[in-house]
Amino acid sequence: MTVDPDCLPGARAPRLLIDLGNTRLKWVLASGREFTAPPGAMPFDLGRLPWDVWCSAAPAEVVIASVAPDPARDALLDALATWLRVPVRSARVEAEWQGLWCAYRNPEKLGIDRWLAVIAAHDADPASAALLVSAGTALTVDRLDPGGRHRGGVIAPGLAAMRAGLVAAAPGLAVHGPGEAGGSMATNSADAIASGCLQAALGLIRHAVQDMLDEGLSPSVWLSGGDAPLLAPHLAYDLRLRPALVLEGLAIWAYRSAKTPSPDVD
């Protein structure tokens, strides 16, 4: 990889926001707290990242949120330092952040992706309850009560991980191959496995919503992750389908946490 010596930030340069997950990387350029273009997403491969695009944008800084293993995160940070030569900040979870309270006794143990989803929902409507659902490699569900009180969450396997775990435990099921997931009873084993995984995920979400309803709260359900389109048709709630929810939260965190906000403000 050859670095362009003219890759330098301008006076009104954007921020480059990066969400590094377990298998994929999402990114977007932001001015203030607003995206300047649609986000991008791709498998994480250092050699295939859009370095030319990022360099041409000449960002003033990079802000990263990572739940990837340390070696992957460190490799990305090294490459960013080589290519862009601008400050890099890493988002972090805190016990209290600008009117939000984390439920974890050890806040640093909460995944930053989950915290950023909470930030995005709270920023949109601080007085309302919300349920934050990420349906990816893992299925995570976090509860946010009115007034910025994060109440914790649950983590379960995502749809693909459920099926993989089932087949690993019962190898004979592998012969059925992928099936079509639905919300009712299936009439063949391939569809039964796919539908069972889907309905297990839906049951987890519905249980969390019902707990909140039983306490007199009416939460909006914020849904993100690669499997969100499979879940959404089966969830009859105040549903917010937000594929870039973590990046939305990262934009807010980056803007509000900066010592000096970028000149392009709200």
Automatic annotation (TrEMBL):
<feature type="binding site">
    <location>
        <begin position="19"/>
        <end position="26"/>
    </location>
    <ligand>
        <name>ATP</name>
    </ligand>
</feature>
<feature type="binding site">
    <location>
        <position position="137"/>
    </location>
    <ligand>
        <name>ATP</name>
    </ligand>
</feature>
<comment type="pathway">
    <text>Cofactor biosynthesis; coenzyme A biosynthesis; CoA from (R)-pantothenate: step 1/5.</text>
</comment>
<keyword id="KW-0963">Cytoplasm</keyword>
<feature type="binding site">
    <location>
        <position position="189"/>
    </location>
    <ligand>
        <name>substrate</name>
    </ligand>
</feature>
<dbReference type="GO" id="GO:0005524">
    <property type="term" value="F:ATP binding"/>
</dbReference>
<keyword id="KW-0808">Transferase</keyword>
<keyword id="KW-0067">ATP-binding</keyword>
<dbReference type="GO" id="GO:0015937">
    <property type="term" value="P:coenzyme A biosynthetic process"/>
</dbReference>
<comment type="similarity">
    <text>Belongs to the type III pantothenate kinase family.</text>
</comment>
<dbReference type="InterPro" id="IPR043129">
    <property type="entry name" value="ATPase_NBD"/>
</dbReference>
<keyword id="KW-0173">Coenzyme A biosynthesis</keyword>
<protein>
    <recommendedName>
        <fullName>Type III pantothenate kinase</fullName>
        <ecNumber>2.7.1.33</ecNumber>
    </recommendedName>
</protein>
<comment type="subunit">
    <text>Homodimer.</text>
</comment>
<dbReference type="InterPro" id="IPR004619">
    <property type="entry name" value="Type_III_PanK"/>
</dbReference>
<dbReference type="GO" id="GO:0005737">
    <property type="term" value="C:cytoplasm"/>
</dbReference>
<keyword id="KW-0547">Nucleotide-binding</keyword>
<keyword id="KW-0630">Potassium</keyword>
<comment type="function">
    <text>Catalyzes the phosphorylation of pantothenate (Pan), the first step in CoA biosynthesis.</text>
</comment>
<keyword id="KW-0418">Kinase</keyword>
<feature type="active site" description="Proton acceptor">
    <location>
        <position position="113"/>
    </location>
</feature>
<dbReference type="GO" id="GO:0004594">
    <property type="term" value="F:pantothenate kinase activity"/>
</dbReference>
<feature type="binding site">
    <location>
        <position position="104"/>
    </location>
    <ligand>
        <name>substrate</name>
    </ligand>
</feature>
<feature type="binding site">
    <location>
        <begin position="111"/>
        <end position="114"/>
    </location>
    <ligand>
        <name>substrate</name>
    </ligand>
</feature>
<dbReference type="Pfam" id="PF03309">
    <property type="entry name" value="Pan_kinase"/>
</dbReference>
